Amino acid sequence: MREAQVVSSLSLARSIGGVGSILVLFSFVLSDGAALFVAGLILILIATNHLASVTKSREPKGNIQAAVALYAIGTIIAFIFVYRGFPSLIGSGLTGPLTSADPLAAFFARFAGTRIIGLFATWFFFVGASFYLKKTYDSIALSLSLDLFRTTGIVLLIGSVLLIVFGAGLVVLFLAATLQIAAFLSLEEGRVQ
Q: Which residues contact 55 (CB under 8 A, 6 or more apart)?
C-alpha cells in the first residue's frame, strides 16, 4: 500500500512540477508573464509538498512556502511600484509635474526614485525566495539522490543575484527554469531512500 502511494505521489509531483516549471519558463517570453509565474509557483508548491510527503521530511514544505510567500511579495511590489507606477495608484497622475518649469525633471524627481526603490525591493525579495527554493531543492536532491535539483537551486540563486544586472540575470534564470523542468521530469519511481 505504501509503495503505491509513493509511486502515485512521485508521478503526480512529476506531472504537476513539470507543468508548473513550464509555466515559469513561459513567463519569460509571454506578455502575461507575472500571472504565469505565480501560477507556475503555485503548481511547484503543490509538487514539492507531494515530494515532501514521499520523503517524510517537513523541511521542504516550510522552505517552499517561505519561497512562494517571498516571490509573491516581490511580484506584488514589482507590479505596484515598477510596472504600474506609483502615480497611478495615488490618483495624482501627471498633473503635479506638468505645472512646474521643467516637467520632465520634476517627473523624474517625484517618481523615478520610487521605481528604483521598488526595483531594489523586488530584487531583495526574489533573492530571499531563491535562497529558500535552493534549500528546498537541496533537501529534495539529498532525499531522492537526484543532483539535478541541487544544480537547479544553485543556478536559480545565481540568476536571482545577477538579476540586478538585467540581461545576465534573466539569461541565467531562463537556464534555471529549463533545468527545473528537467529535474521534475526526471523523477522516477523507486528513487526514494
A: 139, 140, 143, 144, 192
